[in-house]
Specification:
GO terms for molecular function: N2-acetyl-L-ornithine:2-oxoglutarate 5-aminotransferase activity. This protein is of the alpha/beta class. Helix content is 38%, strand content 17%. It folds into two domains: 153 residues, Aspartate Aminotransferase, domain 1, CATH 3.90.1150; 230 residues, Type I PLP-dependent aspartate aminotransferase-like (Major domain) (Aspartate Aminotransferase, domain 2). It is globular. The structure holds pyridoxal-5'-phosphate.
Length: 402
């Protein structure tokens, strides 16, 4: 058999080498991945919040085949029915305006930056700058990287000259002060993801909406990780009862294929004029067909409702675990199936647990060194939850001995 680890080291630039696990994946089915030796792994990572309906869902595979037999790519010069249908559904389910599709999350952030500057040119020439949150993550291409406020991620690169105003997440006064500086937009993740799973309080999101509305500032929600049912509603902002002006989406929306984009409110939907933005590949008809299938499964088959029950079972069990292991668990935080287990004690604990769970056939993620991040598929079952908790608890308690 090929030595995939050795070939990976030789031929792929080492940008992911500190994260990479030594298993070569052969196939996926439901909530499990299988490696080339046939070992099964319960997938609580879903390729970073992408496979929301699990692996090789029969409806996804059927949609892939059906659209694959029709056409894969046509460009934006002809009408693209799967994408038009998806745009209509995303619009109807959210803030009612038009969609611009991209191939990835970073490109959705890039589109948002351009869109916000069209707002400046056409509607708000006396305003400047985008308010972003400390430790926020919005992508790694140069235009998006300026918005990403994580030390170690952006410092080494030349950033574009547009202005940003950085504030502490959840701090009302800093938000008010920032709005006084007459910015164009406020951009935030409703639950900060790679920063370490920080849910913004609902009253903070409501305050942001109120301040933005009265001051003609665009409220932009980066739902790239939180969207498509991850936090228990189709988009996380819904739970605060607010209406953003712009929504960024990607990750789960294409059912495993690359797809992202932005949705605006109707009164802003014609800020991009012909020629203002574009890309060859997006919206991929194939990704769009899968996107429609994801929405069918979440909304028509009732998976979104069902996932809320399973996620509350997970939260209940994690809360109990924390109560019995207070010396090892600092906090459990997040929303729905976007869950962070903040560890304390030896800073290596998270990595040790990741390795030990891998050996026992469970895949989890670690972010910010000490935080276990769970991003399971929405198809997770109560049995999967029980298995995870039991295995996790066993390895957590064994940390005491080591
Ligand atoms: C993943 C992510 C991005 C970037 O998406 P890519 O597809 O990796 O470019 C942007 N914002 C948030 C909140 C994300 O989680």
């Amino acid at each position: 058999m090929e030595n995939w680890a050795e070939l990976d080291r030789r031929y792929l630039m080492p940008t992911y080498s500190s994260l990479k696990l030594p298993i070569a994946i052969e196939k996926g089915e439901g909530n499990y991945l299988y490696d080339t030796e046939g070992k099964a792994y319960l997938d609580l990572f879903t390729g970073l919040a992408v496979n929301v309906v699990g692996h090789s869902h029969p409806k996804i595979v059927r949609a892939l085949k059906e659209q694959g037999e029709r056409f894969l790519h046509i460009s934006n010069v002809y009408l693209n029915p799967p994408a038009i249908r998806l745009a209509k559904r995303l619009s109807d389910l959210t803030i009612g305006g038009k969609v611009f599709f991209t191939n990835s999350g970073a490109e959705a952030s890039e589109a948002a930056v351009k869109f916000i500057h069209k707002y400046q040119q056409k509607k708000a020439p006396d305003r400047e700058g985008i308010v972003v949150l400390k430790k926020g993550f919005h992508g790694r291409t140069l235009g998006a990287l300026k918005l990403t406020r994580q030390p170690g991620v952006y410092q080494d690169f030349p950033l574009p000259p547009y202005k940003i105003i950085e504030i502490e997440p959840g701090n009302f006064e800093e938000l008010e002060e920032a709005i006084k500086q007459k910015p164009l937009a406020v951009l935030m993740e409703p639950v900060l993801g790679s920063a370490g799973i920080y849910p913004l309080p609902e009253d903070y999101l409501q305050k942001a909406e109120e301040l933005c509305k009265t001051n003609h500032v665009l409220l932009c929600m980066d739902e790239i990780q939180t969207g498509i049912g991850r936090t228990g509603t189709l988009f996380a902002y819904e739970q605060a009862g607010i209406e953003p002006d712009l929504i960024l989406f990607a990750k789960g929306v294409g059912g495993g294929l690359p797809l992202g984009g932005i949705i605006s409110k109707p009164d802003l939907s014609d800020l991009f004029a012909p020629g203002d933005h574009g890309t060859t590949f997006a919206p991929s008809p194939l990704s769009s067909a899968l996107g429609n299938t994801v929405l069918d499964i979440l909304l028509e088959d009732g998976l979104l409702d069902r996932s809320r029950q399973v996620s509350s079972c997970l939260w209940g069990q994690l809360t109990d675990l924390k109560a019995s292991c207070n010396h090892l668990i600092e906090d459990i935080r997040g929303k729905g199936f976007m869950t962070g287990i903040v560890l304390k004690g030896n800073p290596e604990n998270a990595k040790t647990l990741r390795t030990n769970l891998l050996n026992d056939g469970i895949l989890i993620d670690v972010t910010q060194k000490t935080i276990i991040r769970l991003l399971p598929p929405l198809t997770l079952t109560n049995t999967d939850v029980d298995r995870f908790i039991e295995t996790f608890k066993k390895h957590l308690l064994s940390l005491d001995k080591g």
